[in-house]
Write a structure and sequence with these properties.
Number of helices: 1
Radius of gyration: 23 Å
CATH architecture: Beta Barrel
Strand order of the largest sheet: 1-2-3-4-5-6-7-8
Distance between the termini: 49 Å
Number of domains: 1
Number of strands: 8
Shape: elongated
CATH class: Mainly Beta
Largest sheet: 8 strands, antiparallel, barrel
Oligomer: single chain
Length: about 200
């Protein structure tokens, strides 16, 4: 009985010592550059827009639980055709929370789920995107003079997952929601893209 208990203790100790270096060797500090696009569902759009964007995110600070890492994300993009009332160009800054895989993870397990939340600034430089159609069907003129720039503020929330293609190239699937408090409008975007990965170390 004592010998069996000793064997179990030694086995548990060896497994623990094997897993600990694997966790210590994880590299949470990396940067990802992504290009992606997808259809948008906007409550006040003149027509169904399509979102195209590029982003850069960096995972910087490991958290003391379950391989979670926090970081930052910056994104810029365009909606085309332009979105009514909120603009067609935008910039976003976000906080990022993601889960990295340990070194012993198999190829099939190499997924990177993540959550982002932050601030979006919409820009309308066309003057036509703020116009509205009259009841007779003819388009009314914009309330914004031609050539001027209008802006609006929004909060965004997104969830997605990156799937490995090779060590430096991943495939991204994401759902992103932008909410504009001024007009009470929502933009839900379904996006797919390609991600290039590099290390900060």
């Amino acid at each position: 009985m004592r010998r069996g208990t000793l064997y179990i203790f030694l086995l548990a100790s060896s497994i623990g010592s094997a897993l600990h270096p694997a966790r210590a060797q994880m590299s949470p500090t990396e940067v990802r550059l992504a290009a992606f696009g997808g259809p948008a569902y906007f409550t006040s759009a003149l027509s169904r827009p399509y979102n195209m964007a590029m982003s850069a995110d960096a995972t910087l600070y490991p958290l003391p639980c379950r391989n979670l890492v926090s970081g930052v994300l910056v994104e810029g993009g365009v909606y085309h055709p332009a979105i009514s009332g909120t603009g067609n160009y935008y910039l976003s800054t976000d906080a990022l929370l993601t889960r990295i895989q340990p070194d012993w993870a198999t190829e099939a397990m190499r997924l990177r789920p993540y959550l982002v939340a932050g601030y979006t600034r919409f820009f309308n430089a066309t003057g036509s995107a703020t116009g509205a159609s009259s009841s007779s069907g003819s388009a009314s003129s914009s309330t914004t003079p031609s050539g001027s720039l209008t802006t609006s503020n929004a909060a965004n929330l997104g969830i997605g997952v990156d799937r490995v293609i090779n060590d430096d190239l991943w495939l991204r699937f994401e759902i992103r929601e932008n909410y504009t408090p001024d007009g009470g409008s929502h933009a839900l975007v379904l996006r797919i893209g390609i991600v290039a990965v590099g290390s900060l170390q």
